[in-house]
Amino acid sequence: MKSSLRIAAGIAGAVAGFIGTIGLLELTGFGNRADPITTGLLAVFVIAPCGAIAGLVLATKLTTRKDANAGSLTRNSLKSLGIVALLCVAGAVTYLLYAYATATPWLNRNGSNPLLVFEVRFPAGVTVPTSAQGITIELQTDLNTMPGEVTPAGFYRDGDQPVIAGEVELAFRTSHRQLAVNIQGQPSRIYPIDLTAWAPHTPEFGTWRRLADGSEIRYRAKWPGKT
């Protein structure tokens, strides 16, 4: 039998040995039922791999010519084992890539959400409430919407133009963001937020960005623990 076929038989034997060992452990009630996690890890990562190696060697031996020497059996077994190991590594890498690609894209996985801190400056003559009442803020992305808060203490006038201030959490990693500012009795204003997906911390506001109605917005990303 050709060497490639013996190697293929060894791989098949490894798979059969792994599955067979798992099935045998299940049938015999192996492990501590009070601690199924430890039992499962021991079965999958210790005992079943031993069964896979035994199945690999047995299948290779059965497909090796009777007149072949021990070196040939060892060589074919090691080749099969190497291919099985490569397949396991490839499978693990594929799974990790898939898990990363499909994982929730939290912007800050290990801490509080960063903030989008903003100011909106209105044209002269626009009536703006002096408190939070009558103003609603919403961050809109392709992944979620997040209500924001206005900061009345940060309201001021820039000459004859009223300015409001506020903040909203940046929960997810995305470059598709816009901020909806709604003042009771006025048309909704939608401001594009031109931050990168990672929204790095910036200590100062960016430049004013104007909408067609003459209102302007400036903003920055503020990360936890930074000012």
SSE diagram, text form:
Layout: H1 3-27, H2 36-62, H3 70-102, E1 115-121, E2 135-141, E3 145-147, E4 149-150, E5 156-158, E6 161-169, E7 177-183, E8 189-193, E9 209-210, E10 216-222
Helix pairs in contact: 1-2, 1-3, 2-3
Verbal overview:
The protein is α+β, with helices and mostly antiparallel strands. The protein is built from three helices and ten strands; from the N terminus they run αααββββββββββ. The strands form two sheets. Strands 1, 4, 5, 6, 9 and 10 form a six-stranded antiparallel sheet that branches. The longest helix is centred in the middle third of the chain and has 33 residues, at 70-102. The termini are far apart.
Key words describing this protein structure:
227 residues, 23% strand, six-stranded antiparallel sheet, alpha+beta, four-stranded antiparallel sheet
Rg, rounded, reads 32 Å
Instruction: Tell me how many strands there are.
Output: 10
Ends apart, CA distance between termini = 72 Å
Q: How many strands, what sense, and barrel or not for the largest sheet?
A: 6 strands, antiparallel
Mean residue pLDDT = 87
SSE order, one letter for each helix or strand: HHHEEEEEEEEEE
Low-confidence stretches: none
Q: Estimate percent helicity.
A: 25-40%
What is the strand content?
15-25%
Q: Based on Cα principal axes, name the global outline.
A: elongated
Number of H/I helices: 3
Supply the helix-strand structural class: alpha+beta
